[in-house]
Amino acid sequence: MSNRPPSEATIRRLERSSGALATRAVARMDEQLPWFRAMPADRRSWVTLVAQAGIASLVEWCRNPGRPPRLTGEVFGAAPRELVRVVALKQTVDLIQVTVDVLEDHVATMAEPGDEDALHMAVLQFSREVAFATAHVYASFAENRGAWDARLEALVVDALVRGERSEELSGRAAALGWATSTPVVVVVGATPTGVDDPHAAVRRAARSMGSEVLVGVHAEQLVVVLGRTDDLDEVAERISDEFGEGPVVAGPVVDGLGRAGESAAAALAGLRAAAAWPEAPRPVTADALLAERALDGDPLARAALDERVAAPLRAAGGEVLETVRAVLSSGGNLEASARAIFVHPNTVRYRLKRAAELTGVSVTDPRGSWTLQVALALAQLDRERSLWH
């Protein structure tokens, strides 16, 4: 097979037929590639432009075979970003192969007599150069996209930590591939030391369990946003191994990314107060730290304790609240509590069961007893303050 370039006459014939060849290539893509047929019309038009640019670049390359073809700009300049965003690398290879096949099928009709081998060789060499250029374009895009995604992810996490409820938040998350309607939880803790890329370790752990994940560092704290339809507690427990030393706190599960700021606020408040419970599990929920958070000055925790604990006990009637106070005062001794309020111990048990149903905490559990003491003490202070004003 000859290594000489095609003659000028062949190149002119190829140039005159470039538009028709591109149309035939796209028609064959439509026949052979089901995913191409399913593409919207505007995206198919991008592929057509790229095919036309590729054939035009082949013509120019045949005229200047000694010049290394600048294929990245010439072939993909028509729609570089759009193409790589919507067409995967493997699909682009398929598109190139179809275009090359069409060119090879028409070598005999495009080439002047005796020029068939030269044109065939030019097509093969050029298709190889296009394949290399494709890989370069996708590699460059992946690198740029990775840097852009990292910046966008940092902006989303920072907005959540600052409590912003921007309309742009869901859009930014969607650009990162996040399904904004899934349940969300925010987990916070210390950033690990001696780890080159803590973000990557957290992402691997979360995605291995099928969870969506955003990761950021805020004031030396690692902030992780998890999204999944179920078992978020299990995912939070798994990724807690990727944090640095110290407590790891999970905020409450909320409905969608639009409310993730609420989970982040609770988690961060819990992290600030977690030192008051050295034996806390890891991770610990922000709700389990309501008492510590309230003592640390968190108004949301104080309001939650009143709403979930003190108010239901007040509403249940004096007997239930009296019994809870008696058991707290006796250090959990039910018999002594019964004697103090002149009832049978079984009555005390019944009322305590009722109190646990109303508040979700048990006075006979050490943590529940502590939470009840704090909630009732703060409620009493608020009541006294309101009387003075």
Describe what this molecule looks like in 3D.
This protein is an alpha+beta fold. 65% of the residues lie in helices and 7% in strands. It has 19 helices and 6 strands. α4 packs across α9 and α15 packs across α19.
Give a nutshell description of this structure.
The chain is α+β, with helices and mostly antiparallel strands. The chain has 19 helices and six strands.
User: What is Rg?
Assistant: 34 Å
- Could you name the ranges where pLDDT drops below 50 across 5 or more consecutive residues? none
Largest sheet: 6 strands, mixed
Task: Please state the overall shape, judged from the principal axes of the Cα atoms.
Answer: rod-shaped
Series of H and E elements: HHHHHHHHHHEHEEHEEHEHHHHHH
Q: How helical, in percent, are the residues?
A: 55-70%
Find the structural class using helix and strand composition. alpha+beta
**Total number of helices:** 19
What is the end-to-end distance? 101 Å
Mean pLDDT: 80
Strand content: 5-15%
Number of DSSP strands? Answer: 6
Question: SSE layout and pairings?
Answer:
Elements: H1 8-16, H2 18-32, H3 34-37, H4 41-63, H5 71-76, H6 80-86, H7 89-105, H8 107-110, H9 116-161, H10 168-175, E1 183-190, H11 198-207, E2 212-218, E3 221-227, H12 232-239, E4 248-250, E5 254-255, H13 260-273, E6 284-285, H14 290-295, H15 299-315, H16 318-329, H17 334-341, H18 345-359, H19 366-388
Parallel strand pairs: 4-6
Antiparallel strand pairs: 1-3, 1-4, 1-5, 2-3
Helix pairs in contact: 1-4, 2-4, 2-7, 4-9, 7-9, 9-10, 15-19, 16-17, 16-18, 17-18
